[in-house]
Amino acid sequence: MLAVWVEQLLGFASGALKAIRRDERYPALMTWAREQGPALVGGNLPMAQALAPELWSQTPLERLGFACEPLARPGRNEPCWCDSGRKTKQCCGAVRLPGPVPDHLMWMLSLREWKGDTLKAALESGRAPAQALLEAGLIAAETGQRGRAQQILESLFERGDWSRLPEQAEPAFEILIDLYQERGFRHKREALLDAVLEQGPLFLRGVALERLCLMHLDADDLDSARAAFVRAQQALPHSPTLAYIEAMLLLHEGHEEEAAERARFWFRRLARQGELDPDQLEFLADLADNPGATLALAEQLLNAEEDLAGPLASLQALLEVLPTAPRLQITRSDEGRLEYHQGERERALTAAWLACFPAEAVSESPLGLEDDPWPAAGEWLPELCAHPEWLDAPAVLQGLALALTTRFGSLPWMAPSLFVPLAERLERWLDQAAGEGPGTLAWDDADNALLLRTGLALVVGMERGARQRSRRLAECLLALDDHDSLGLRELVLDQLLRDGRDDEALAVSHPPAGEELGEAALGLLLGRALALYRLERQAEAAEALEEARRHNGYALALLCADSPRPLPAVAGDGVAEPGSRAEAWQYRTLMRDQWRATPGALAWLQAWLDER
């Protein structure tokens, strides 16, 4: 019965609003209510007459600067406000409505209909009830009106009076943050997060911190992500979302066993509270049993909206049973250079793959694709699964590795099922190359770039979720390409530092004799300094710091700073200019967690700076 009433009320209110907008005068509304209104409420004329004055009193009028013109509610023996001429008790006062009439209904409907300058002026008037803004914004977002949704929801959160914010504002806040992200309004997103964190209500502050933590994870800024998570714990200690975020954070940090242990803690704690529904409890139980697999399944479900869940599952199943890769045509020249040459079969397999895969590698970029292949993934993924022999061609493996890295490379839980099987395939070919004897597998020789680019994509894809495999593959590539054309030396150094293998890290920080440090100079010098500090060789560590400071004057102070303002992402190929603040920020993002986790390292670094 209530559902019927809600449907009737919305239909009647929408009709009443159109009647009001004709001249914004009360008599015109009542004429409409008597002539056309009954048809919208089951033919009930008294109900139509009783509803009209209620809706008029809450309708914003453009002629009054979007203020309402409420009617004085008459007494029982006074003339009825519907202008029938009868006493209220004999007219509208005798009508019992089937359900309540929300006092923000006409504002909400008006916000749904107004456009352009009228909508802008209505929002700037500051008269719209918060609940009306909330509901109108959510409806606009659900119906794909992103610009309108952003405009309305901005008005909800820009008022400054957080006490007026409805408790249901949490999904609206998340939608607005997502809209800013999708539409490229980075500064607006950061300003909203800052405002909520500084003065927003507690329930929104926790959500903002959770979103901030996820944003830092997406940017690979693990140190900032950890700090945001700790603040979120303090703000919302019983939020079940924290269990999911902490598991993600620990997996990003490479602590899979601890992720499972913490997930078990969250499951026991939240299960005792008895406030979660069965689906949430089941998810936490699965998370405790196997965090990586559970988050990978969740990723598939997230992709279900794009019809990718099935093809992704098929790809993972295929990679589990992929047969051993065939040998390639790899030779060793008289000058000792290793060369891979594509065979006829590999060229034919590649041509079949490129007929459905809509992107090719950018020749000048180690990890670039000319186009985004994922909008068409519903076509090429099933084709690949139907033709597993395509993966016998390094060019096909290259395209798949690049595509997976661009989409899933930042998600540690996707590495075991997607990247590790491809790495095993590539390692067989690299072992074959190494078996030809000493020599260099140079990027510019023959078709070597196919193997090297694939290797780089897989190293990056496994860096978070399969660190040991990532380092092993990187070391194998470095051994074959001693000129380090892929820039893997810094990556291997970082992974060795994370594993506490400081002697090996120190050795890797020195390139071969006669080789320059190159673009990775800052990372190699600071990695060398950290390894030497851990090995208690502080005098040598200070020398490495001095070299690092000469290379980049921003890096050391930025590394010590607790809460510096983030820099915008580097445009283009993502490589920061040597010596720039952007380069310093990139190093801080990637490695500050290791400096902070090394007892006394940041204090020593700050003291070294203070002396100068």
UniProtKB/TrEMBL annotation:
SUPFAM superfamilies assigned: Sec-C motif
Any one Pfam family match given in the protein's UniProt record, by short name: SEC-C
Highest taxon above the source species: Bacteria
InterPro entries registered for this protein in UniProt: SEC_C_motif (IPR004027), TPR-like_helical_dom_sf (IPR011990)
Name under which the protein is recorded: SEC-C domain-containing protein
Organism: Halomonas alkalicola
